[in-house]
């Protein structure tokens, strides 16, 4: 598995998108946590977003509104991109090639 694929699999694990039985899970250090588990901050914030989207859909009289879904998916895409870039910057920093220490 190359660096890019490993990094993306790690992100998916952090977001609860891979179950613990996935082949990649065995390669994850024990200190890495799924931050979407019950009681974890991201899981709680995601629940807030889900409930707000549900309220918006009820006010709009829809099951799923394309604009609400677009907003949520776009924010998830932004978060993914920034997280993966921060990982790269962390690798650069740790290697000594990322600027002043």
Question: How is this structure best described in words?
Answer:
The chain has helices at 3-14, 41-60, 66-95. It has 101 residues and is an all-alpha fold. The longest helix has 30 residues, at 66-95. It starts with a helix and ends in a 6-residue tail after the last helix. The model has no long low-confidence stretch (mean pLDDT 87).
The biggest beta sheet reads: none
Number of strands: 0
What does the average pLDDT come to? Answer: 87
For the record, give the distance between the C-alpha atoms at the N and C termini, rounded to a whole number.
30 Å
Shape: elongated
Radius of gyration: 17 Å
Strand-residue proportion: under 5%
Element order: H for helix, E for strand? HHH
Helical proportion? 55-70%
Structural class by helix and strand composition: mainly alpha
Count of helical segments?
3
Flag low-confidence runs. none
Question: Summary?
Answer:
The protein has 101 residues and is mostly helical. It has helices spanning 3-14, 41-60, 66-95.
Features:
101 residues, 3 helices, mainly alpha, 61% helix
Ordered list of secondary-structure elements with their pairings:
Layout: H1 3-14, H2 41-60, H3 66-95
């Amino acid at each position: 598995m190359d660096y890019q694929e490993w990094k993306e699999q790690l992100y998916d694990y952090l977001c609860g998108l891979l179950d613990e039985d996935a082949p990649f899970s065995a390669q994850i250090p024990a200190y890495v946590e799924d931050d979407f588990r019950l009681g974890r901050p991201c899981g709680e914030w995601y629940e807030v977003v889900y409930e707000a989207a549900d309220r918006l859909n009820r006010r709009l009289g829809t099951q799923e509104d394309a604009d609400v879904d677009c907003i949520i998916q776009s924010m998830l895409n932004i978060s993914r991109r920034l997280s993966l870039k921060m990982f790269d910057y962390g690798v650069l920093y740790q290697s000594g090639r990322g600027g002043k220490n």
